[in-house]
Amino acid sequence: MIRRLTLTLAVCVAACAPDEGPPTSHTPPLDAPGQQEQHAEPLETPTEPNTLRFLEQATFGPRQAFGAPTPPIDTVEHVMTVGIRQAITDQFAAPRSTFDGLATKDLGSQFFFHAVHGQDQLRLRIAFALSQILVVSQNGIPNVMSTPEPEPRVAMASYLNLLSQRAFGNFRQLLEDVTLHPAMGTYLDMANNRAFKPNGQPIEPNENYAREMLQLFTLGLHKLNENGTPVLDNLGRTTPSYTEAQVQAFAHALSGWTYAGPTCPTIGRTNPPTYAAPMMDCAVNHNSTSKELLRGVWTTANGTPRQHLKEALDNVFDDPNLPPFICKQLIQHLVTSNPSPEYVQDVVNIFKNNGSDVRGDLRAVIRRILQHDEARGPVPPAAQVATFGHLRSPALHVTTLVRGLKGTLDTTGTLDPGAKLSSWSQSMGQYVPQPPSVFSYYPPNAPAPGGGGLLGPEFAILDTATVTARANVTHDLLFAAATANAGVLIDLDILPVNSSDTVQWLNRYFLHGTMSPELRDIVLNAISHPDAGDTLRRKKLAVYLTSLAPEFQIQR
């Protein structure tokens, strides 16, 4: 009965999508790099609800310090003490979590352990977002049976470490590092992309990386205004952001790279895969002719692979489509699927110039996203409540619950609790770090069902099977003995004993004070029923019903 009742609530996540388009609102200009005049609430003295919203956006779930003498930097108490601006600064300085491709525990297990226990919560959130934009999947990397190491895991661990390392750096450097990473080289054929056969006969270079780099990693298919809205012609049609000829030009400009080795191979030949170092340039396999890129820019005639790489990436990085295409997706991953054009424009302004004439400063971009009025305040702006927020992805559903219930992952002995969380996420449609394609787990432009034109990327993997999986995963976390036996430990003693107080606690810490009277009555009536069981079971039932209601599933 518990599962049937909650499945009905969970289905409302899909059925209760808003049916009105996102309104617009004025956002004040910047008064300093990464700062703004705050209308929602002062950044230095956030209220508890605002703090909880911030932690939902900047971590893998809010958690409390529970009386720790020095509250950890990712706790409610710390943020309320130092303010949101300083809390972001603290996260920038947190020690970085890393992945090990040779460890016993797989990368999914390591990911969820970091997501629950890592100090660098914001870095992990940004790296996770970047991994869904600049996509490499462990599934697309062959395991070379003649070598002892597991190439898919080694390559993917190195790639995830790169995204983590560059999460707060410059997007131009990130783009180059991604382009030359051997995992990307294997996944999208950037490695061993030759312009000649062994007999010296010219051939057309592989276009795979060039195409996906333009379409998915930097520009998108259609030209955008700086506020993220599409550029339309006088007939209301979208305009392509690049042509097929330009894809071919980029493929030529990016030819001539192979896996690192002691020397370059001979013409038409390749080096064997290795994931220990960035790819190396080999002029013998590069097309050195001049090609026309974007906006009438040509590569240098007789240029080297490295020279043409720089010209190609500089050309893309300077394109006006890149800031709105990337900034809107980062806002979607952290805050809301349908940011207002003003929100996107403000973040784009920072991407274009961080205040010190630097383009692509991700640290400034992230700060602007999280400090913006549309992200801040105890609740979303009143005019936008119906269209604000995003469906929690499976990974965030799992980690938010575990962290919110004082969860710990016990890795003593042979226990592998991270693998348990990973399998839960996989059952709900998000197998980290193995997205099914270069389009990631879900596309950023996926519509919200019944949303009247609103976007809802995470809804692309929400169906009857994965809705049921959300109910089953939550049930297993709370009720199944196998969960604790696997090392996933939660502490329900943090909830009050009294039923009314339990509901209020969930309203306070899980919904930052936004619980509707209808949900309150549903939960309170259920846990007050004579058949609800003892105190512990009533607490579990209250968490179960609350966390599968639309008010929790849609992070606002």
Provide a descriptive summary of the structure in words.
This protein is mainly alpha-helical and 556 residues long. 44% of the residues lie in helices and 2% in strands. The protein is built from 23 helices and six strands.
What is the secondary structure topology, with strand pairs?
Elements: H1 2-15, H2 48-58, H3 76-82, H4 84-92, H5 107-117, H6 121-131, H7 151-166, H8 171-180, H9 182-187, H10 208-218, H11 244-253, E1 257-258, E2 280-281, H12 305-317, H13 322-334, H14 341-352, H15 362-371, E3 390-391, H16 394-404, E4 408-409, H17 417-427, H18 464-479, H19 481-485, E5 488-489, H20 499-509, H21 517-528, H22 535-547, H23 550-553, E6 554-555
Antiparallel strand pairs: 1-2, 3-6, 4-5
Helix pairs in contact: 1-18, 3-4, 5-17, 6-7, 6-13, 7-8, 8-12, 10-11, 13-14, 13-15, 14-15, 16-17, 16-18, 18-22, 20-21, 20-22, 21-22
Q: What is the first-to-last residue Cα distance?
A: 29 Å
Largest sheet: 2 strands, antiparallel
How do the helices and strands follow one another from N- to C-terminus?
Answer: HHHHHHHHHHHEEHHHHEHEHHHEHHHHE
Looking across the biggest beta sheet, what order are the strands in?
A: 1-2
Residue-averaged pLDDT: 93
Global structural class: mainly alpha
Q: Can you give the helix content as a percent range?
A: 40-55%
Number of strands: 6
